[in-house]
Each structure stands twice: as structure tokens, then as C-alpha cells.
Amino acid sequence: MIDGKSIQNKLIGSDDERAVSPVIGVILMVAITVILAAVIAAFVLDMGQGQEEPVNAAVNVEVSNADNTTTITITDAGNAESFELRGEAVDGAGDLDISKTGESKKYTGTGNFKAGEEGTVVGIKGDSETVVATFEIGSSWS
Length: 142
Prior knowledge:
Structural class: alpha+beta
Helix content: 10-25%
Strand content: 25-35%
Number of strands: 7
Largest sheet: 4 strands, antiparallel
CATH topology of the largest domain: Immunoglobulin-like
Shape: rod-shaped
Strand order of the largest sheet: 4-3-6-7
Distance between the termini: 115 Å
Order of helices and strands: HHEEEEEEE
Radius of gyration: 33 Å
């Protein structure tokens, strides 16, 4: 008669003969997989760089050549901390003194702008700067 216990001992060994290598093997495979996933994620997500994210904001600039006015409105402040007016068209560029969604600033006349030139609105967050709008002053401004 065939004893099930003796067949089992021949196939997988007795309690004394079994090794723990399959358990160690599985643990090592899991550890290697986790380490590889962490290294790949670090490269893909640039976690080691410490770079600042770009400024994400939206500004609307309306230039009226009929009455020589320029209105700058923040349509979405996003993550910008402040905004500056820069460029060839701008005489005395600098801080716009507006920083929240919905705020606007209106310039009248040519005291701040040069006719026929281009200006930009720059969003600033820490050391990061992004041009969020460009505009051109009409050549007919006087």
C-alpha cells in the first residue's frame, strides 16, 4: 500500500529537509522591484533636482488706440506671486501692483508707453518668471 506521507517526503522533503530559500528569494525579488521603481520614479519625476515649477497665470491686455489707454486684467493669477510690466513699449517698467484674479490696472495716455513698441506682462513666483502676455502699442499714439 502506498503511504501519502512517504510520497510527500520524496517530492518536497520532510520538515527537516526543506530549505527557506524560496521565501528569501521572494523577499529579495520584492525588494529589488521596490528599489527599481523608486530609482525610475526619481528620474522620471525629477525629484532630485529641486527645480521650481513654472509660473502658471493668465492676463488680458486691452490696448485702445482710439483713446490711448491700456488696461491690464488678471484673468487667472494661478501660482504667480506678483506681476511686472516690461518691454520696449514700457517707460519705467516695474511692478503692476495687482496680483489677484479679477484685479486690473488702467494706463491712460503715453506717459508710460512708447508708440509702435511691444510690451510684456511677466508673472513671478520666487526666482521663476514667465511671460504671460504680450501687447503692442499703436504707432498712432501721441
